[in-house]
Amino acid sequence: GAVVSQHPSRVICKSGTSVKIECRSLDFQATTMFWYRQFPKKSLMLMATSNEGSKATYEQGVEKDKFLINHASLTLSTLTVTSAHPEDSSFYICSARPREVWGYTFGSGTRLTVV
Amino acid sequence: TQLLEQSPQFLSIQEGENLTVYCNSSSVFSSLQWYRQEPGEGPVLLVTVVTGGEVKKLKRLTFQFGDARKDSSLHITAAQTGDTGLYLCAPYSGGYQKVTFGTGTKLQVIP
């Protein structure tokens, strides 16, 4: 079946540094990918829509300069958390829709801890 | 934004018990999906309900779409520890539209 691979699964970084998270569609092309953020025991909050070859579309309240999204190929989208602070610590998840699936496939998520 | 309220927010039950969780909205949906998310993982699609009044079964899980296509329920029979997770509903209209999830129900099944 279609797989979305997310890397890294866990990352710890120092406050003020930047962290890049990768989301790859392994056996299908994805012109659109989605990035979510999840707080403990809470639902997924949509952050942005990543569009291949064009600018991402951010949800209201999401800082585009803080969360940089690049979708340079049909199989890869990256989310860079810039100048990370402890409040950016969270679980980040990406998703994409394989053509043959009536729904979305999700990556396994990235646990970001900013210390 | 179509707001989906799920209830209960948290549920802790003994193995073997039955349970029902709900997904409600004031909006009408063309279809609705249920996902389950296990701790530390991404959500996994369980089912899509499309027709008002539709009932779909997935082993011990029974999904129902409301007649007016505004709400849905998930009933689990004889819960098992493997059913533990966060259950999420989300509207789906096909295509590659963004998905906004409901508030979620966190289920814990105790052995």
Account of the 3D structure:
The complex is a heterodimer of chains A (115) and B (111). Chain A is globular, with a radius of gyration of 13 Å. Chain A has no helices and eleven strands. Chain A is an all-beta fold. In chain A, strands 2, 4, 5, 6, 9, 10 and 11 form a seven-stranded mixed beta sheet that branches. In chain A, strands 1-3-8-7 form a four-stranded antiparallel beta sheet, with no helix packed on it. The radius of gyration of chain B is 13 Å and the shape is globular. Chain B has a five-stranded antiparallel beta sheet, with no helix packed on it. Chain B has a five-stranded mixed beta sheet with strand order 2-10-9-4-5, with no helix packed on it. Chain B has no helices and ten strands. At the A-B interface, strand 5 and strand 10 of A face strand 5 of B.
Task: List the topology elements.
The complex is a heterodimer of chains A (115) and B (111).
Chain A: E1 4-7, E2 10-13, E3 19-25, E4 32-38, E5 44-51, E6 57-58, E7 67-73, E8 76-81, E9 90-96, E10 105-106, E11 110-114
Parallel strand pairs in A: 2-11
Antiparallel strand pairs in A: 1-3, 3-8, 4-5, 4-9, 5-6, 7-8, 9-10, 9-11
Chain B: E1 5-7, E2 10-14, E3 19-24, E4 32-37, E5 44-49, E6 55-58, E7 61-65, E8 71-76, E9 85-91, E10 105-110
Parallel strand pairs in B: 2-10
Antiparallel strand pairs in B: 1-3, 3-8, 4-5, 4-9, 6-7, 7-8, 9-10
Q: DSSP strand (E) fraction of chain A?
A: over 45%
The total of beta strands of chain B comes to: 10
What is the chains' assembly state?
heterodimer
Q: What does the radius of gyration of chain B come to? A: 13 Å
Q: How much is the average pLDDT of chain B?
A: 94
The major beta sheet of chain B can be summarized as: 5 strands, antiparallel
Counted beta strands of chain A: 11
